[in-house]
Design goal:
Elements: H1 2-9, H2 12-56
Amino acid sequence: MKIFARFAQDESGATAIEYGLIAALIAVAIIAAATALGGNLSNLFNRISTRLNNAAV
């Protein structure tokens, strides 16, 4: 019976889950930012490439 009482009082599993949720939220934010930034960078490089090609002609 003491084993169950000690297990019920142990909060290390809950803390690990909370850290896991925080890490997942940060990962989602990083992925969203990288996706948005990637599209902007792609557009920027395409504009630079177009201008360089027009200047070379």
